[in-house]
Structures
1.
Amino acid sequence: MSKSFIKHAWITLVFIYLVVIAGSVVRSTGSGMGCPDWPKCFDSYIPPTSVNQLPENYKEIYANKRQHKVNKFSKLLIAIGLTKEANALLNDKNLLKEQSFNWKNTWTEYGNRLVGFIAGNLVLIQFIWLLLKFNQRRKLTLLALLNLILMGFEGWLGAIVVATNLVPWVLTLHMFFALIIIWIQIKIILMSKNKFFSFKISSSFKWLFYISILLSMFQIVMGSQVRQKIDFLMADHIDRHQWISEMDTDFYYHRSFFWVVLLINGILFWLNQKHNYGLKTLNYIVMLIVIEFITGILFSYAGMPAFIQPIHLLTATLLLGVQLYSLQYFNYKSDSSIRA
């Protein structure tokens, strides 16, 4: 593959991560409903800066639009057998409560959408590039197509998130598919590089590493569940310093499960040193886990400061990204001329 394509694939990955960061900033600042419609914001491509730019009955207007979208989404849920979830949406009158206009929230959410728009177009360009220039690499082209489809699906989920007024399980699904997109994009980069490495790693080490990746994904999804609880606390206007005392078991499971992640990666780090595998990425993995540990302590004992939340999520997703990137070193080829 050309160096320019690989560079584009890396830039695309960076913007996908920026979407994750932007989404975390939106949630930590309570800006998720800063734009009550989608893809426009207050029915405009450039959102307002003052409530005076909106009609007096703007809350009623967007509540009616949301009702229409909720009805359509509920029909889809019923069609795929999720009748309970559909009825919960239809009977939840809180979904139709519009927030008062706040220009900071609106522009924070708008910035999130702009980053998402750029990332989506980079994924589109990536697919077209492969289709026109490297169509013989069918597996790679199909992966790029899959990521493009998933980006579109994420955009649709974003619309549902707005329509359902941040319903928790939809947000968790949104986060899960973001992780899948990151995974596929890293796979695209690794396949484009098409490198083999000259050192051999034991199968037991590889399996333990695979387990560590699954644990990281599980921990991130579990953290999203904790984030849902925080959304409810924010909606109830409970002071940030009281959040820990209001947490349910999900938070304590998430916090305790971190020690499992630490243990597994600690063992991997030790084995890497003991057997001289030479996986330098494990140093970065340990460093990210330390940062995750520090931000977790600040969450628990410093009143969950808002600026820590995006750092905590970014560190977790970077950790997963480095783990996935490390899989290339398992691509062994017994040729001494190939260097890692």
Note: The chain has eleven helices and no strands.
2.
Amino acid sequence: MPAGVSRNPIETPMRTAPVRPTIGTPRAERLARLRKRMAELELDAVIISRPANSRYLSGFRLARGEGETAGYSGTLFVTAFEQLLLVDFRYLEQAATQVTDGWRVVRTAAPMAIVIANLLADHGVLRLGLEAESLVHARWAALAESAPGTELHAIDAELAELRIVKEPAEVAAIEAACQLGDQALVYLLDRIRPGVTERALAAELERFFIDNHAEGTAFDPIVLVGPRAAMPHGAPGSTPVEAGSVLLLDYGCQVDGYRSDMTRTLFVGEVSEQVRRLHEIVREAQRRAIEAVRPGVSGASVDAVARQLIEESGHAEHFGHGVGHGIGLETHEAPRLLTFEAPLREGMVFSVEPGIYLAGVAGIRIEDIVVVEAHGARRLTASRREAVTI
């Protein structure tokens, strides 16, 4: 660690290697919950093609970004008594090794609208559930045209509800990914110096995760220097690290399909008193929000706790995103705290990430992943929230 780092950025002792849990596959129970909901909605069948939902229910896995090129491969067709995984030749052998628990792998060759129309006819499906949020209009329209006797119904909210409470093995996998994120920060501190570019630091993060046996990054790392940190989701570029500036790092990795997400805003040398004050406001807002988390309170009320402090500090217009989002097989999933009026439940996992963004000055964000437990929130990230000066 270079001279000048105020103290160890990890608050709790770290194991030498992250826990690599074996993810259980209670898919029979997951399917039972899906079928119960199908019965309540009077659906004869559902079609599921979102990669995260397909993996959750069947075990079939597509790499990040592969969903756009896989076509319909990985699509699930589920009725009250049968479950099929539809794949083309490219994924046939892969599916055979990944999918068990009563799933039948079906090789497809004809256009998928025809394949599905035949399945609907064979099974007498009159009411079909679909993922409207991830199914492009052209495919929805093609299916409606090829199966005019079948009613199509969106079931996105019902599928999100299936995954909103994490099983213990899922929490363990997210925690392992968070632990790798903590270790990545320690690794990166030795490589931050004036002159190194945002893009080079982002590449170092990606390299660290691959070298340490993660499946890869959870998303493209955000690495932003100085005033560029005022872009909440800016992309790293050729801007070099400079003394007297902030360095915003937002990154995560994937372990056994489950993801982490952490943001820290570092000080490179001495920064202005204004920037230090902004960091303290954000840190306190996050602390209060995490303390407000417990079973039975709404996600929206947790969001309001952090937002109130930022607004009282005079920065209402400088904080325009939600305080937190669910995380699991996807980086952003339910619950989204800002709009989640329902009670939080034990096993929900989400980020807490308030921020303040002053255009032309700096952006400050601090983000941790927490799990809701009986007595409140437990942080799955261990990196300290106080300012680290390099």
Note: The first strand starts at residue 45 and ends at 48.
